[in-house]
Amino acid sequence: MSQNDPVAAFRVEAGEVLEQVEQGLLDLGHRLDDHELIDAVFRGLHTLKGSGAMFGFDALASFTHHCETAFDRVRKGLTPATPQLIAVILSAQDHMRALIEGDGAACDAEGQAILTKLQAALDAAPAPTEAPAPAIQQWRLSLRLPPEAMQNGINPLALLDELRTLGECRIVARTDQVPLLADLVPTECAIGWDVELRGAMSR
After folding, report:
1. Where are the alpha helices (DSSP H) in the chain?
2. Where would a tag sit more exposed on the chain, N or C end, judged by fewer CB atoms within 10 A?
């Protein structure tokens, strides 16, 4: 192989990536929820697709795109990694290898048969389990800031606005510690707040 032959270099590198994908799939078969393995397999398929297209291996890029799309669904949590899905993509390794080598025996009919099995595996996969909605809770808070809070850059209105984003919020100002006008210091925080908060939140 000439060092100046980019196609030959591509075939070597693509073969190495394909071996990494294959090993990742074998490991994933034992650890179906391993997100690092899922990401690694996806990246490998993505690399094969992109580099194949770059070097004119359009059949490889097109075929691998379907496998990459399937694993993108797994990566995003839209489809679980199942033994059936892993087995199908493992069975596609020989076809991908033939496409990398430019073997005419890697016919469209064989590739289409694999993609049909791939779609069947995706259709048969159970829907991902949705996390239960957090329980609605109700809280009563008493908010009292030190007098120098505003001088230290604390904005009490911003704190109250933040509480409003958490759910239903009822705020009552407490003025029992507000001094007479003659004794009022504008830069001191003399007002307190009682807050009733209701929403899906934890302590």
Report:
1. 6-28, 35-54, 58-75, 83-91, 93-101, 108-124, 156-164
2. C
> Which is it for strands 137-143 and 192-199: parallel, antiparallel or unpaired?
antiparallel
Tokens 């209105």: give the residue: 157
CATH number belonging to the domain at 6-124, selected among 3.10.20.90, 1.20.120.160, 3.90.79.10, 1.10.240.10: 1.20.120.160
Token readout for 40 is 């690694």
Q: Are 156 and 118 in contact (CB under 8 A)?
A: no
What letters, b where the CB count within 10 A reaches 16 and e where it falls short, cover 143-161?
eebeeebeeeeeeeeeeee
Q: What is the model's pLDDT at position 90?
A: 94
- Dihedral sign, CA of 193, 199, 201, 203? positive
Q: How far apart are CA 166 and CA 105, in angstroms?
A: 61
pLDDT classification of 131: cutoffs 50, 70, 90: low
